[in-house]
TrEMBL record:
SUPFAM superfamilies: UDP-Glycosyltransferase/glycogen phosphorylase. One of its GO terms (molecular function) is glucuronosyltransferase activity. Belongs to the UDP-glycosyltransferase family. PANTHER family: EG:EG0003.4 PROTEIN-RELATED (PTHR48043), FI06409P-RELATED (PTHR48043:SF145). It is found in: Membrane. This is UDP-glucuronosyltransferase. It catalyses: glucuronate acceptor + UDP-alpha-D-glucuronate = acceptor beta-D-glucuronoside + UDP + H(+). Pfam families: UDPGT. The lineage of its organism: Eukaryota, Metazoa, Ecdysozoa, Arthropoda, Hexapoda. The chain crosses the membrane at residues 172-199. It is a single-pass membrane protein.
Length: 218
């Protein structure tokens, strides 16, 4: 956040200064004109904070790790996706009814404040976040147990070669699809060559026909 343009940072400051809750803001360096309800730090124990029962909202860019942690904790999310998979990640939370998405480049103070208040005061977002969290955690084994199981599985089956992708057996030209590209190139070249020959034959036929017709007309 400390690298964002001043007008965007000021928009966040003005909006967050009006919310009744305390705000923890990951921020590099010293923040100018910091609201009295805002605490900044270079690092926070994010997962520990998200699982705290008093946390009302998580504002994030939508990275997959943060999204997983928010879903696991059952906390509503206000997302500002910027690139790569962040848009899809936040869209999934919006579809689940536990989040909202905003455009960081066109952000306005009133819109930001209204969305924060909506997410923190409307119980439906918290309820949907808890439902999503329950679904996320409803699995045969925990993530730790899953890692242990598959590690032992690979050891038991001596590397589990049968699970490896066949891509490992491809030659370099197959991996980069050069053989497919060559076939397509040859096919296109043949089509162009045949088309050229056909047009050439038709052209000479028409030319010869016109030359035979011309003397008769004279």
């Amino acid at each position: 956040m400390s690298t964002l343009p001043d007008h965007i940072q000021n928009t966040f400051k003005e909006a967050l200064a009006q919310v009744p809750q305390r705000v923890l803001w990951k921020y590099e360096g010293e923040m100018k004109d910091k609201p009295i309800n805002v605490m900044t730090s270079k690092w926070f124990p994010q997962l520990d904070l998200l699982t705290h029962p008093k946390v009302k909202l998580f504002i994030t860019h939508g990275g997959i790790s943060g999204v997983y942690e928010a879903v696991d904790a059952g906390v509503p999310v206000l997302g500002f996706p910027f690139f790569y998979d962040q848009h899809r990640n936040i869209d999934n939370l919006v579809e689940a009814g536990m989040g909202m998405s905003m455009n960081l480049m066109t952000i306005q103070k009133d819109e930001l404040l209204n969305n924060i208040l909506e997410l923190t005061n409307n119980e439906k977002y918290t309820k949907n976040a808890k439902i999503t969290s329950e679904r996320f955690k409803d699995r045969p084994m925990s993530p730790v147990e899953l890692v242990v199981y598959w590690t032992q599985y690979v050891v038991r089956h001596k590397g589990a070669q049968h699970l490896k992708s066949q891509a490992f057996n491809l030659t370099w030209y197959q991996y980069f699809l050069l053989d497919v590209i060559v076939v397509i190139f040859i096919f296109l070249a043949l089509v162009i060559f045949i088309t050229y020959k056909v047009f050439k034959i038709v052209y000479y036929k028409c030319l010869k026909y016109s030359q035979t017709i011309k003397p008769k007309s004279e």
